[in-house]
Design a protein that fits this description.
This protein is mainly α. It has one domain: lambda repressor-like DNA-binding domains (434 Repressor (Amino-terminal Domain)). The chain contains 5 helices and 2 strands. The radius of gyration is 11 Å and the shape is globular.
Length: 73
């Protein structure tokens, strides 16, 4: 499976948030731990709603959590 043209800093943000687990983040934003793992690994693109929920959980603007690489298409 090809990687999506998105990048994210979720793993780093979880660590900085007291080593929050994938399961804890998933519970806060309403998705499974497996979904958080797939998003972190760039294997799954979250819905816009989930992306905003993740950013809000860390108190960051969306652009500080997710990036878009147009060259990666």
């Amino acid at each position: 499976m090809a990687r999506l043209p998105f990048s994210n800093d979720i793993r780093t943000l979880r660590f900085l948030a007291g080593e929050m687990t994938q399961a804890e983040l998933g519970e806060r934003v309403g998705v499974t731990r497996q979904t958080i793992a797939a998003i972190e690994q760039g294997k799954y693109s979250p819905s816009l709603e989930v992306a905003f929920r993740i950013a809000r959980t860390f108190g960051k603007p969306l652009e500080q959590v997710f990036g878009w690489d147009e060259e990666g298409r």
